[in-house]
Amino acid sequence: MSTMRVASYNLKDFTLDRHAAARVIRAIDPDVLCLQEVPRRLFSTWRVSDFAQECGMFWSGRHRGSGGTTVFTSLRVQVPESRHYRLRVAALQRTRGYAVLRVGPAGHQPLVVASVHLSLDADERERHAVQILKRVSGGGPVLLAGDLNEGETGKAWRLFASPLRLISASIPTYPAKAPRKVLDVIFASPDLTVLPHREVALSVDDLVAASDHRPTWVDVDLDPQVVPTAETETGPAVSESTVEQAEAAAEDAAGNESAS
């Protein structure tokens, strides 16, 4: 296997038709599924576990504190590491967090994959984006997917787009009934090879019944793992310096907008 499909889907806390959502996911058949708004309250673990099984996927569990973000994987890939993190939010706001794992097919260099769901507050989104970028930096190729709750002019979007690049199709994902906004996206570091977008035949009825968002997905082409040597090791694609450059670029862009 040299191609890995990564998808992202906001599931609205299973408040709609999770069976329709499972049918959508099985049709997409991802190797890695970044999820947002899965049930996160006490005793919700069994619901998420049952849903993963219905999707034909594996779930590591331990998502408490991650604000409803997590990641499912198929048996076609290996997951040497999986973690969930909490993000600090203002009082009375929805809990926020993100999930990070290292994942890849056997014999291939693992990717750092993050599932994110940003705040409805712009300042909070920007602050969280910086924290997430620092967490995923330095571990190899990076792929970041999720619901940003803002478009390409937003500060958090621009922060992600500086060390990373948008690789998902610019197709509106929200609201599911009549999509008008591109909120659900996938970014990747420049060292990843992205294949042309492949459409999947999905039931519109299932898409509308499953969630208020529609999913997005990409296919990445992976090279066989090479043992690093002094000549081949080039360092991380996303580092602390690239994160700092992204922060500076976002501040400059914000300043230019204020002046115009």
TrEMBL record:
<dbReference type="GO" id="GO:0006506">
    <property type="term" value="P:GPI anchor biosynthetic process"/>
</dbReference>
<feature type="region of interest" description="Disordered">
    <location>
        <begin position="229"/>
        <end position="260"/>
    </location>
</feature>
<dbReference type="Pfam" id="PF03372">
    <property type="entry name" value="Exo_endo_phos"/>
</dbReference>
<feature type="compositionally biased region" description="Low complexity">
    <location>
        <begin position="244"/>
        <end position="260"/>
    </location>
</feature>
<dbReference type="InterPro" id="IPR036691">
    <property type="entry name" value="Endo/exonu/phosph_ase_sf"/>
</dbReference>
<dbReference type="InterPro" id="IPR051916">
    <property type="entry name" value="GPI-anchor_lipid_remodeler"/>
</dbReference>
<feature type="domain" description="Endonuclease/exonuclease/phosphatase">
    <location>
        <begin position="13"/>
        <end position="213"/>
    </location>
</feature>
<dbReference type="InterPro" id="IPR005135">
    <property type="entry name" value="Endo/exonuclease/phosphatase"/>
</dbReference>
<dbReference type="GO" id="GO:0003824">
    <property type="term" value="F:catalytic activity"/>
</dbReference>
<dbReference type="GO" id="GO:0016020">
    <property type="term" value="C:membrane"/>
</dbReference>
<protein>
    <recommendedName>
        <fullName>Endonuclease/exonuclease/phosphatase domain-containing protein</fullName>
    </recommendedName>
</protein>
